[in-house]
Amino acid sequence: MQPPCLSVCIATRNRGAFIAETLLGIASQGQGRIEILVLDGASSDNTTEVVTGLQSQIPFLRYVRKVQNGGVDRDYDEAVALAAGRYCWLMSDDDLVLPGAIAEVLSAIDAGHALVVVNSEVRNHDMSVLLDPNRLQWESDRTYPSGDLQRLFLDASAYLTYIGAVVIRRDLWLARDRAAYFGSYFIHVGVIFQATIPGETLVIARPLISVRFGNTQWRPREFEIRMVRWTELVWALPAIDERTRTKLYRREPWRSGKSLFFYRAKGTYGIDQYRQWVRPRARSALNRAVALSIALFPGPLANVAGLIYCRRQYRDSNIHYLDMKASRFYPPTWLRNLVSAAGA
Residues 194, 250: one domain? Predict the structure, then answer.
């Protein structure tokens, strides 16, 4: 048999409730040129039973289960190493491909692009409500020649926090430093932006993926991942110049009181995050005082303020509103937990 052209690589852990729908959606578009590789980071739920139960229906589905979880970066890297395809699509384990997605990606691969970035739409947790029909908000595809890495970074780096957007030539991935980005949660961004891409990059404007919003497993660590890990990664990328980075990202985003208050309202910033991540980095008494006061601000009041703010019409206001409702400080949730704790 000929090796597959495309390996859809899924690193997963404890997604038994969602992964079957993801796999069946991909398999329904299989055209004999793809494989699906699921690398399981030692799930403790029924993920093994769900995936192996689908192998009789999906003959091009491979399943590898690890004895110990290595973290999302290591697991995606290992999935690429195990893949048989010339290209790897780093698919999320709970999102869905839209009609024609596999065919469009294969067409981009056949055109010889070294890297393909896939646009997405965003839906709510059960996929019943469309929150954002076009995450990139582009009307047409864009092509970036080799050497145009700065423009690609400016145009797409924020979107590329989503790993499911990445389709990359396997040999390119394996030729680059990956170990330096283990633990960053964004290994794919480190691989892409550490050096010039040896070939063209295509960004597909038509959304090909439905993202399941609000289902991330790292929400309790969101402040660390978004405000610390992401920032440290961006400011350490060797091929991106300082002027380009500065146009998009602050070097010390935790100095923004508005940002801290936003994470406080979401329930992901508090005294523990202040002590671990902000206090050691804050260089002035004023920075520490502001960050501490926000960490101690009553969470339910912050959440109410966030809910009111998100009623305004701005980009992502509906997504941020759902974020506020998912917070442990959302008044109905907070009151229910309070009553439950009092009864115990």
Answer: no
